[in-house]
Amino acid sequence: MLSERRLQVLRAIVQDYVGTEEPVGSKALTERHSLGVSPATVRNDMAALEDEGYIAQPHTSAGRIPTDKGYRLFVDKLAGVKPMTAPERRAIQNFLEGAVDLDDVVARTVRLLAQLTRQVAVVQYPSLTRSTVRHVELLSLAPARVMLVLITDTGRVEQRMVDCPAPFGESSLADLRARLNSRVAGRRFTDVPKLVEDLPEAFEPEDRGTVSSVLSTLLETLVEENEERLMIGGTANLTRFGHDFPLTIRPVLEALEEHVVLLKLLGEAKDPGVMVRIGHENAHEGLNSTSVVSVGYGSGGEAVAKLGVVGPTRMDYPGTMGAVRAVARYVGQILAES
């Protein structure tokens, strides 16, 4: 365990390096920070931090820069994330409240995160498997053709066409709609199959085939894995950090194109807290020079998906964590109210 003084020195090195992009020397540290010790003591502390792998010397006669291990300790010992100012919070709320549907919410969230953090923003669409049914609408398009519209608690809308084995009257359709919603509205997707399995028996024999067709389409919609969707924005921000990537940003850009990689990086939605993965903690080799800050978002206190940012390890962690958390909170509120 590091002493509090050495931890203070490490914090100062991280803050200066993130702010100046220049390796940090002991003289600069004592001039910029009230460390309460002599430059010689600071040099000794820096030598100890280097021996323990928290900082490194990029080249001869240079100052020191934090390593992945140093950033990790800095993040783990953060007293708190940087709070958003009142104008920033109002701007977030006003920008997101203008969204007209779920796609617009996700698109606005990506733009907002990229602008606030000046990093690459990644937003996962709400997962169907963790959603609940808000309403099922059934619309007659022809005597034997029905449109099924599934609306989730996160504002997601899925539409499917159902070809019925026989004509199905408006009164029968209204009856099916009412019975279906009385059973599934407000229930989790995973509970729906058992809740509707005996529903065909409530109808006349000639209508049971159509009821079964509608239910089959509904259940297929519930289990489809199109929840593994995400949206990315702000990749151009990476060009500002060219010198932060050892060789080139190409491996980072290639990794960002692989959505499966990004979904793994964001982590499981059931872990709602702010998660920070630094450098080599990211399993994908192309992202070893980046950090990922992610958090769950959702309504009713339960995370239904993740959002976050990807940027260089030389990142303003308190500010980025604060921005990601604030945006997630507002997105959750909008989903709850939609």
Tags for this entry?
single chain, 338 residues, three-stranded antiparallel beta sheet, 10 strands, elongated
SSE arrangement:
Elements: H1 4-20, H2 26-32, H3 39-51, E1 55-56, E2 65-66, H4 68-76, H5 86-97, H6 102-117, E3 120-124, E4 133-142, E5 145-152, E6 157-163, H7 170-184, H8 192-196, H9 208-223, E7 230-233, H10 250-257, H11 259-266, E8 275-278, E9 290-297, E10 305-312, H12 317-337
Antiparallel strand pairs: 1-2, 3-7, 3-10, 4-5, 5-6, 8-9, 9-10
Helix pairs in contact: 1-3, 2-3, 5-6, 5-12, 6-12
Quick description:
By secondary structure, the chain is an alpha+beta fold.
What does this structure look like?
The protein is of the alpha+beta class and 338 residues long. Helix content is 43%, strand content 17%. It contains twelve helices and ten strands. It has helices at 4-20, 26-32, 39-51, 68-76, 86-97, 102-117, 170-184, 192-196, 208-223, 250-257, 259-266, 317-337, and strands spanning 55-56, 65-66, 120-124, 133-142, 145-152, 157-163, 230-233, 275-278, 290-297, 305-312. The strands form three sheets. A five-stranded antiparallel β-sheet has the order 7-3-10-9-8, with helices on both faces. Helix 2 (26-32) crosses helix 3 (39-51), helix 5 (86-97) packs antiparallel against helix 6 and helix 5 (86-97) packs across helix 12 (317-337).
